[in-house]
Design a protein that fits this description.
three-stranded antiparallel sheet, two-stranded antiparallel ribbon, mainly alpha, 227 residues
């Protein structure tokens, strides 16, 4: 069976909870500095992408954990989970600079009506896109950068960049050349070519997933600055 790609929201959750601190460096060496590393699947099933089965490890500890030699001396799943959970508990007490908190609150307050429309309409915007929402999507990322709302904290910045990427991906999915304007809405244009029409269901599912990730990441940011 082919290995499934780690979902973006699972990856972002682990990186945010760990603050890119290695669970084993923290648990074994009391080292809570930021590391370069990878996300490990603790039960060794690369297709099990539940957050509880994942942990951020530095490259050295990840290589050791993945090693197939000397298994009796290797780190165990429960051992890493224990250190990971202790790390997560400590990170919950981490507080950001007041200016950073204000920047994130201002970021979350930008264009709230757009996100409420996305939440309510979901994947259906791939069939019928309100022209005002189309304009809001087009200018959102510009408004974020022009209002100096991007964080200087890497973990927050990475989430903001993923939200921006998802919004851009929604715009790419909804190719307006395949739509016609009816009143205030862009409507998907049906054609005799069935392969063209079959795009719609796939497009709706893709857009729905992108919107779900956006909503989850915004809630993650909200939780990070309100602990």
């Amino acid at each position: 069976m082919a290995r499934s790609k780690l979902p973006q929201i699972a990856e972002q959750t682990v990186l945010t909870k760990s603050l890119r601190r290695c669970a084993l460096c923290f648990g074994l060496n009391q080292d809570s500095t930021q590391k370069r590393g990878q996300i490990a699947h603790l039960n060794k099933n690369k297709n099990d992408n539940r957050v509880e089965n994942l942990a951020f490890l530095c490259f050295d500890h990840h290589d050791t954990f993945d090693s197939t030699t000397s298994q009796s001396k290797n780190y165990t799943c429960n051992e890493i989970k224990h250190h990971r959970d202790q790390l997560y508990n400590q990170n919950q007490t981490y507080s950001y600079d007041p200016q950073e908190i204000k920047r994130v609150i201002d970021y979350l307050s930008l264009m709230p009506e757009m996100f409420e429309k996305l939440r309510i309409e979901g994947g259906e915007i791939a069939y019928c896109l309100d022209s005002d929402l189309q304009i809001e999507l087009e200018f959102y990322n510009y408004n974020v950068s022009s209002n100096n709302l991007l964080s200087f904290s890497k973990d927050i910045y990475d989430i903001q960049m993923q939200i921006a990427s998802n919004i851009s991906e929604i715009q790419r999915e909804i190719d307006l050349s395949e739509y016609h304007l009816a009143g205030d809405n862009f409507i998907f244009t049906w054609r005799e070519d069935q392969s063209h029409n079959e795009k719609l269901e796939f497009r709706k599912e893709t857009v729905r997933n992108l919107i779900t990730e956006i909503i989850e990441m915004r809630e993650m940011l909200r939780a990070m600055v309100t602990n």
